[in-house]
Amino acid sequence: MTRTAQHLLFHGMLLFLLGLLGGVVVQYLHNPRMGLAAHLAGVQNGLALLAFGLVWQYTDPPLLQVTYWTSLFGLYGIWLALLLAAIWGTSRSTPIAGAGFTGAPWQEMAVTLLLTSASVAIIVATGLMLLGLFTKLNSRQ
User: Fold this and answer.
1) Residue 62: predicted pLDDT
2) 0.90 exceeded by pTM
3) % helix, strand, coil for the chain, step of 5
4) Over the stretch 83-130, which tens digit does the pLDDT of each residue have?
5) pLDDT for 28-51, tens place per residue?
6) Mean pLDDT estimate for the chain
7) How many angstroms separate the Cα of 59 from the Cα of each of 8, 10, 66, 71, 127?
8) By three-state DSSP, how is residue 8 classified?
9) DSSP state of 30
């Protein structure tokens, strides 16, 4: 197993733990419903990083470093954006879970920028991983 795969596994377990710990404090957050969303995102995103780490050896993604860093930024970023939305009570970029809450304009902007950029990053990382799997699959024929 490569060092990159091991790092992805480590970060997957760390984010999984952060998601679990977030579940402990849900009821103390400004918006508990958004806190639940952050808890679930942390757990799910941790599992996604674990999957990336396990799949890493079977893929040959183009732009290895870009794939690695966009994976980390995307999955941690989504969790952090939702956690900040729960703490600050923002709702512009999360109107369903944030219904009835409004944060300061700078808080709304920070959550929107982080959530949007992290979402784009994980889509890019997933596409690169898929391309790497496809390339490796076709190179074995």
Assistant:
1) 73
2) yes
3) 80, 0, 20
4) 999 999 999 999 998 999 999 999 999 999 999 999 999 999 999 999
5) 999 999 999 999 999 999 999 999
6) 95
7) 14, 19, 14, 14, 12
8) helix
9) S
Please enumerate in sequence order all residues whose Cβ is within 8 A of that of 141, keeping only pairs 6 or more positions apart, or say none: none
Q: What is the total residue count of the chain? A: 141
Structure tokens given for 75: 């999955």
Tell me 27's DSSP state: G
Q: Identify the pLDDT of residue 141.
A: 61
CA 41 to CA 103: how far, in whole Å? 21
CB 23 within 8 A of CB 93: no
What is the rounded CA–CA span in Å between residue 121 and residue 48?
14
Pairwise CA distance, residues 99 & 23, whole Å: 20
